[in-house]
Amino acid sequence: AKDEGKNQFRVYDVTLNPNAEETIEIKNSLRVALANDEFIVYYQPQIAVDTGQVVGLEALVRWVHPTRGLIPPNDFIPIAEETGLIVPIGERILQLVCNQSRAWQDAGFPPIRIAVNLSARQFAQKDLSQRISSIVGKHRLDPQYIELEITESLVMKEGMQPALHSLREKGFTISIDDFGTQYSSLNYLKLLPVDKIKIDRSFVKGIARDRKDEAIIVAMLLIASRLNLTVIAEGVETVEQLSFLQQNNCHEIQGFIFHKPKPAEQITELLASQSHR
Ligand code: C2E
Ligand code: CA
Ligand code: CA
Ligand code: CA
């Protein structure tokens, strides 16, 4: 027993990364999935710190595979981006979100803001702003209830700035996802029309454990407040994290401490219980 721990193998979880064979299979079936309408959207509530109310939802795609069941986005979005299929898939996701939003409003719920993730590849379309606003308009939705999440790594791609300005002018909210994880975050704030930042989970994890993470979060909140930006923290799981963010005036919280991403029917129940409160 003394020598236990020596000569141990690292055990890798193969489910974390699909192997090469699986990747090829996914690549081939993504096109079929699109044609057969196998994508669905889960929604994760975003909570206002001051009122505790659900003030927004983030739309997170899932693939309902006929034989493999529910496939998480990390297993196919990177492949969809590589193949360019993210463009039609992204558009389909926006349509699903708009359908759902229209259904909730038709059922009598007050309009709720829904955040949609945009991939860099989608900005390669010259008419992205036009396409988005046309889908939203067809569903008779006010753009102020659609938030567009952009990840930092892709924000500066050529041609992106005009599209973002045009979307902002149409009334969409622009938010920077995974804020602080790339190398030129502050430059993005300076150059792009941004309404909101999402503090990445990697910083939130360090609350009550790592003074550097705490200092960085405080600094982000200060910069955001000086620039009049809304701040949401994502990946909030513990009471310690929540109270730290509360004390430092973070506006909104998204994380398992409140809700995991859920299918639309469960969100309907949540919205119903909130409106009777
Ligand atoms: P993301 O945009 O950063 O989304 C947040 C991810 O963190 C989600 O994973 C969510 O379920 C997870 N999460 C939320 N709260 C917590 C928490 O408290 N603890 C932990 N451990 N995790 C939490 P999900 O749904 O698996 O999505 C993963 C990524 O896939 C997303 O990261 C996004 O980059 C991408 N993705 C998802 N849906 C779409 C989409 O419709 N379009 C595009 N382009 N990408 C998407
Ligand atoms: Ca996101
Ligand atoms: Ca994120
Ligand atoms: Ca992320």
From TrEMBL:
List where in the cell it is found. Answer: Membrane
Residue intervals of the EAL domain: 23-275
Residue ranges that the Swiss-Prot or TrEMBL entry lists as coiled coil: none
Quote the protein name from its UniProt record. Answer: Periplasmic sensor diguanylate cyclase/phosphodiesterase
The organism of origin for this protein: Cohnella phaseoli
Portion held of the full protein:
471 to 747 of 752
